[in-house]
Design brief:
By secondary structure, the protein is an alpha+beta fold. The chain has six helices and five strands, in the order αβββββααααα. It has two domains: 67 residues, Beta Barrel (Thrombin, subunit H), CATH 2.40.10; 101 residues, Methane Monooxygenase Hydroxylase, Chain G, domain 1 (Up-down Bundle), CATH 1.20.58. Helix 2 packs parallel to helix 4, helix 3 packs parallel to helix 5 and helix 5 packs across helix 6.
């Protein structure tokens, strides 16, 4: 019972949250609903970009990874990762792709920044495969959406800032 009260305090209607598998959403409501004969307290999260609404039981919010937007220090750490040197691993693409997907779905801005950094390609470098491009764009989108909310800016401005950091760090190497 104690967990419910701490979870109730944690999320408020109208604030932005991160659901690891879907990225940044906005808490629309915290409501009670009767499901299969049991009354549950639900956090209703809207993902406008995907035109999706998610209902997460308040008691399960922490275990599914629903969290508030990252602190500035965490975002600074993620930006530091973007400035680092890309780690190119010599394993099969399918295994690397699975690792990248797991990092993206972890919801951690630092892990997502690693994916963006590792898959970033400057315009004049080799082409990316379709699946590589898809994973890169998904990671960049997740990171820029959270960065935008954290820094009170538009998503497009956040994406531009992240790309500027990547371009500057890859030009130095």
């Amino acid at each position: 019972m104690n967990k419910k009260t701490t979870a109730k305090i944690a999320f408020n209607s109208g604030e932005f949250v991160v659901y690891p598998a879907h990225g940044v959403g906005k808490v629309a409501d915290i409501t009670k609903q009767k499901i299969a004969g049991t009354e549950l307290e639900l956090i209703v999260v809207n993902f406008d970009k995907d035109k999706m609404t998610l209902r997460v039981p308040l008691s399960k919010a922490e275990s599914v990874g629903l969290r508030k937007i990252s602190e500035a220090s965490t975002m600074d750490e993620a930006l530091g990762v973007l400035k680092g040197k890309a780690k190119v691993r010599k394993i099969m693409w399918s295994r690397r792709a699975q690792e990248y997907e797991n990092k993206i779905n972890s919801g951690s801005p630092v892990a997502i920044a690693e994916v963006v950094r590792d898959l970033y390609r400057r315009e004049n470098l080799a082409e990316q495969s379709y699946s590589e491009r898809q994973i890169y764009e998904q990671a960049l989108d997740r990171l820029s959406n959270e960065y935008a909310i954290c820094n009170h800016m538009s998503s497009s401005d956040a994406t531009k800032k992240l790309l500027d950091i990547l371009a500057a760090s890859s030009a130095e190497k």
